[in-house]
Structure of (Perigord truffle) hypothetical protein:
Amino acid sequence: MSPMAPNTDGTVDILPPISTELPKELSLVGKTPTIAVIGGGMSGLRAAEVLLQKGYRVVVYEARDRLGGRISTSNHLGEAVDLGPNWIHGTDNNPVLSLAESSGSKLHHFSEQCPTYGFDGKLLDQAEADELSELMWKVIERAVEYSKHCHPAIPVEKSFYDYCVEKAEELFGTGAAEDEKRKKELWLSLAEMWGTFIGSPVERQSLKYFFLEEPLEGANIFVASTYETMIDTMSKPSLDAGIVRLNTPIDEIITPAPGDRNCVMLRSSQKPEENCEVDAVIVTIPLGCLKREMINFQPKLPKRMLEGIDSLSYGTLEKARFSHLKAGYSKLKIC
Ligand SMILES: Cc1cc2nc3c(=O)[nH]c(=O)nc-3n(C[C@H](O)[C@H](O)[C@H](O)COP(=O)(O)OP(=O)(O)OC[C@H]3O[C@@H](n4cnc5c(N)ncnc54)[C@H](O)[C@@H]3O)c2cc1C
C-alpha cells in the first residue's frame, strides 16, 4: 500500500493495477524501497519471494509462531495429516501444481486410491464407486452449464441438491426395485461430497448461481505427502534472507496524507519493538481477520472494499481422515 490521494469520503484507494514494474510512488523513494508483507501464508510467502527476486528489501510479519497460515500439517495422530488444504483443484496453468512438483510432493489423482464406503460401512466395489463418481462429475458439469445459460429462470430457492434429486430420477428411475433405490441413494450421498468442496451443504447451494462455482480446468489432485514440503519450499527464500518476524501481529497501518512523509507506518501492540516505517505494504491476511477489523487501517479502507469484505463469507469445512496401512501404501479418504 503506497500513500495515495484520499477519496471524497476520506478513504484511500489502495489497489494499484497489478504490475511487475516498480510503482511510480516507489520509484520516487530514491533508495531501494522496503516492502512489508503482512501474513506468512502462501500468498505472503510468494509475494516476499518475488519481491526478493526483484531486489526489494522485504519484511514478512506473521501473527503466529509458524509460517504457512491455513496450510498446516499435524503429526499428532502419529502420521502427517493436513489440517488445511490437501487438494490441488484444477491443474491447468495452476502454479500450485508446479510448486508441488518442484518440491517433490507425492501426488495422486482424485479417483486413484479413493475407497468409498456404503451405508453399511463396507467398502464399495471400486468399479461401482468409479461409475457413480463419474456420473456425479458429469451432473456437476451439466448443472454449471444449465445455471450459466438459464439462471434468470431458475428460482432462487432451488438448490443444487434439488437438481441432483431430479437427475437421480432420470438416471436411476423412480421405481421401487431395491438395487435401483440403493444406487440412487448412494449416488445422492456422493452428491453431498460437493458440499465439502465448497464448504456448505449442497441443500444450501443455489442452483441459480451454481455457475459461479465452475470447477477450474484440469484434474483434481490429492497431495498424498501433505502440503508440508510445499510450504517448506515457499518459506525457504524468506527464512534464508532472515526477513521473517513471527509472533508479530500487525494491528495498525497508517498511511500518511499526500504531501506528508512518503512512508507507511506499521504498529504491533504485541511487539512494539517491531513498529516501523516502510515504503509499501502488501496485506495478505484472511477475509475473516478483515471482517473482524483486526488491523486498524488509517485512513479507512475504501468503501467499495469494505462492502466487498462485508458481503463475502466462508463456509465451514470439517475434515476427518483415516488410513489403512496395507501392503506398504496408505489409503486415504476425506469426508
Ligand atoms: C480446512 C481447509 C481446507 C482447505 N483445502 C484446500 C484445498 O484442498 N485446496 C486449496 O487450493 N485450498 C484449500 N483451502 C484454502 C487454502 O488453504 C487457502 O486459500 C490458502 O492457504 C490461503 O493462503 P493465504 O496466504 O492467502 O492466507 P493464510 O494462509 O490464511 O495466511 C494469512 C496469514 O496471515 C496471518 N495474519 C493474520 N492476521 C495477521 C496480522 N494482523 N498480522 C500479521 N499476520 C497476520 C495469519 O496468521 C496467516 O498465517 C483450504 C482451507 C481450509 C481452512
User: Anything to note?
Assistant: The radius of gyration is 24 Å.
